[in-house]
Amino acid sequence: MSGSKPDILWSPHHPDRYVICDSELGLYRIGPVGSAEAKAGTLPLSEETAATLLAINSDTPYMKCVAWYPKHEPECLLAVGQANGRVVLTSLGQSHNSACKELVGKEFVPKHARQCNTLAWNPVDSNLLAAGLDKHRADFSVLIWDISSKLSPETSVAAEKIRLSSVDLDSSTVVTKPLYELGQNDACLSLCWLLRDPKLLLAGMHRNLAIFDLRNTSQKTFVNTKAIQGVTVDPHFHDRVASFFEGQVAIWDLRKFEKPVLTLTEQPKPLTKVGWCGKLTKGHSNNDALIYYFVFWPCKCSFKMINVVVSLLCACIMLHGLHTVTIPMQVSHMKQCAEDMELKLQGNVQSVVYSGIKNIVKTTSGTTETRRCWSGSDRQTDVPRYHSEERCLALRLCGWISRGTDTDVENFLRSLEQEHEWERAAAVALFNLDIRRAIQILNKGAMAEKGDLNLNVVAMALSGYTDEKSSLWREMCSSLRLQLKNPYLCIMFAFLTSEPGAYDGVLYESSVAVRDRVAFACMFLNDAQLPRYIDRLTLEMKEAGNLEGILLTGLTKDGVDLMESYVDRTGDVQTASFCMLKVPRQITQKSALHAAVGFTFMFTGSYQPTFVFVLWQVFVSCNFCGKSISYSCSTIPHQGRGFSQYGVSGSPTKSKVTSCPGCRKPLPRCALCLMNMGTPVSNCQGTGKSDEKVDLTRENKLAQFNNWFTWCHNCRHGGHAGHMLSWFRDHTECPVSACTCKCMQLDTTGNLVPSDSS
Amino acid sequence: MDLHILDHRLRVTSISKNGLVNFTHPLIKLIFLRNRTRCKFFSLTETPENYTVVLDEEGFKELRPSEHLQVESAIWLPLNVVSNGSASSSSQAVGVTKIAKSVIAPLAQQHVSVFMLSTYQTDFILVKEKDLSVVVSTLEEEFNIYKEEGGESVPVHCQDVSNAIQPTVHPVLIPKNQFCVMSLDPDTLPSIATTLIDVLFYSSRFPADLLFTSSSGELWRMVRIGGQPLGFDECGIVAQISQPLADSDISAYYISTFSFDHALVPEEDIVSVTDMLQHQRNEPATS
């Protein structure tokens, strides 16, 4: 046993297969537990899944690293790097592929023996296999082999002065001449081919990361860093690369390669591997990348290792989920609002830019009432439906109807069907009085893969709809609907069984998305009921800090309140600041000023246990060591220390940190009081005697904010927010002498005047 | 080309042949129990005369003073040349030969004494701490010089000048032994520890088929430099050997020990090396 660390490799083509490399190679397949093939060699992974051992290969001793052939055929071809630097091609399981047979057993021998640290197949030209070796005083450490190369052993051996021992002289399978030799006099610890150009190879060398270009091997781009382990490129964003060093992960942007764009907080245990999350969930934008990393516990037992890997993969999926619900959805809302409102503005009706549905429906006028027939039947409904231009806009904001004059929901229904949201689609169809379409959708849902057969039963119940007031159907449905688990199915029957105008069963079903409820309200509530309902819902959203409420409030003062409450609840400053970047200048409320200035502070914190998985994407990094200055508390975020660590919470009694927890170098000083960052403001110079009458609660809030650290993004000078604010009340130039930067004027929010200060 | 001044402060010591028994414990600790000591640099060379131990100050604390232990008073700093990819790869010559012209000769001209340690992976050039400013000013033109402090590389610049002295030529001795140069994966150290201990302290035969990392079966011959113990102050010893080797493009390992210097040259080149050195020995006499 060569003492290598155990590793796990996922098949590039079968998501259910993986290889465990320890002293030998084992190919496993993941399947449901307790299936017929439960036999020896099955490892339980979780309650539902188990891994079955398919093949084992112990032909390659002294294994140091393994790489899986990236192409479909030959499927199970593996390259194994050995402790003596040789790379051997081997396969797992039976293969009848002749190409594979030819390749298996081929060996690639470096001129000077030393450990092979890493292997990487070229993803495009899969004949190329890069091997990263330890240092040798006279040799190269990155060798690129052509696995298809035919060799003439006699000449090459003589030329390279290699005297292979008699055992090795099975020369038909031994290749000694690499296609490329790179990285002289250095050790190579990790390798990956760059996806933006298959001729570029990124290598983690002994002290630096280097990019080699195969078209011109004498040139290389490199950057000195310690984070040289496990380089890996983001499959969805080809300029983004991750590497790590001990417990720290560095994210690089190849377009700006001088420094890591991001350093992830230190893990308590050294990492052994990092990777990018390969699969993105539906509707996920490509830019929302995710990195997972895991730590192997010092445990020899490979079985335990698998468990760790799998459970951490789950954690990573969970993390992914949180991201999906928080940021992108809200951002898309914001976009939608802005765009649609602007469209409306062009129509010159009124200035509704950035205002939410709450404001829109307040000004509603010219509402018409129609009583439509159930489509597909002549029966008249007694359900009044309301129309107006404003309501139409609101529906558009809710996403029910698309832009333009089209008021048909068919497009929306189709997109819901595509996303397998059968119940929601059926409910929307029903609210548009198309009961036949609703039934059709439910049928489709029941037939679909993994569909719920109960949907058929619901469809049957739906088809029995009668508008007779005292029918058995009505009686049973109104009571039994409460037992339906899906909120959309529930509100469908609530709608059918309620009196016109009294739709509380629909409107106050809190598990139904806000936009669907609002859209429903816009269709079926009259001019008196609608604003009342919207007001009540807005208040509810604000109190709960539910970002869905942005739809109602828009980017108004209400919206800022909502955002504040959201930040209070979650600590997710990033989302809030991203949304707030769009706050228009017209909003001059003090709270908005605070929100805008405060949110653009590049602080981040999460003090809710539910959010500990959310990655910290933005943080304050130390000038000297580049680590987050809050990293020491990040490993234990649930203890709720967050901001207080560096004094920004404003409580002077808390222990203050005035030096970087990573390298112990002092944090920058406030340009005005010359105290190090992290020192609380002793007295607010800004609030003189005249301001003392300001009520106490506001005073407290201000004091907290005064301790925040702020700086100009142009001249990089800064200090306590309170000091800065008071300085710029009287000055336009940066407080640092000889700096002529007009910091505050560069900041758009800096020109705002608090509404109550005049 | 980059020159790194490594973050080690080294002592050069020698243990006499019959005194080894007194140092078995600290040596085993330094070699095999690396996590028990804070020693980061350790080299042990056995020659017929003595054992030369080069180690950093942390490791030096482990060696108890004894009549069998000789210590060179100076602190030595290891230098390491890193070709940052820009170097041409045409030359097949390795080791001392490659840096002979760029490092060894200029240092010899500036009267800087060097202590060479060639390893499988790289060559360390040890210079006395007091000579560092001269080293930096001498090599500044050719190299980007970095000083390593706590893992970070810090660029170094200096201004200083010294003058040159003509070196004496030392006799050489070329024994018939063949040498093998190998490296070892640190992870496998425990598994061969008993064998190594046996070789180091109890017997002298190195068992065959032990180190799996020796696949290219190159064999090397040794040239021992010096008839009298060389001492540590004389400069130009490495230069007088490495210069002719560099001129003929012959690879070499060069290992300095407490008493003598040793160069390893490829077996197939030993004849030409012998001729060359013999010629060099005769030349000063005739001229």
TrEMBL record, chain A:
GO terms for cellular component: cytoplasm. This is Missing oocyte, meiosis regulator, homolog (Drosophila). It comes from Neolamprologus brichardi. Residues 622-744 form the GATOR2 complex protein MIO zinc-ribbon like domain. InterPro entries: MIOS/Sea4 (IPR037593), MIOS_a-sol (IPR049092), WD40/YVTN_repeat-like_dom_sf (IPR015943), WD40_repeat_dom_sf (IPR036322), Zn_ribbon_mio (IPR031488). Keywords: Repeat, WD repeat. It comes from the Eukaryota. GO terms for biological process: cellular response to amino acid starvation; heart contraction; positive regulation of TORC1 signaling; venous blood vessel development. Belongs to the WD repeat mio family. Residues 334-524 form the MIOS-like alpha-solenoid domain. CDD domains: mRING-H2-C3H3C2_Mio (cd16691). The lineage of its organism: Eukaryota, Metazoa, Chordata, Craniata, Vertebrata.
UniProtKB/TrEMBL annotation, chain B:
Residues 76-141, 216-278 form the CASTOR ACT domain. GO terms for cellular component: cytosol. One of its GO terms (molecular function) is arginine binding. GO terms for biological process: negative regulation of TORC1 signaling. It is found in: Cytoplasm, Cytosol. Residues 170-208 form the Cytosolic arginine sensor for mTORC1 subunit 1/2 ACT-like domain. Keywords: Cytoplasm, Phosphoprotein, Ubl conjugation. It comes from the Eukaryota. Residues 9-69 form the CASTOR1 N-terminal domain. Functions as an intracellular arginine sensor within the amino acid-sensing branch of the TORC1 signaling pathway. As a homodimer or a heterodimer with CASTOR2, binds and inhibits the GATOR subcomplex GATOR2 and thereby mTORC1. Binding of arginine to CASTOR1 allosterically disrupts the interaction of CASTOR1-containing dimers with GATOR2 which can in turn activate mTORC1 and the TORC1 signaling pathway. PANTHER family: CHROMOSOME 1, WHOLE GENOME SHOTGUN SEQUENCE (PTHR31131), CYTOSOLIC ARGININE SENSOR FOR MTORC1 SUBUNIT 1 (PTHR31131:SF3). Belongs to the GATS family. Forms homodimers and heterodimers with CASTOR2. Interacts with the GATOR2 complex which is composed of MIOS, SEC13, SEH1L, WDR24 and WDR59; the interaction is negatively regulated by arginine. Interacts with TM4SF5; the interaction is positively regulated by leucine and is negatively regulated by arginine. This is Cytosolic arginine sensor for mTORC1 subunit 1. The lineage of its organism: Eukaryota, Metazoa, Chordata, Craniata, Vertebrata.
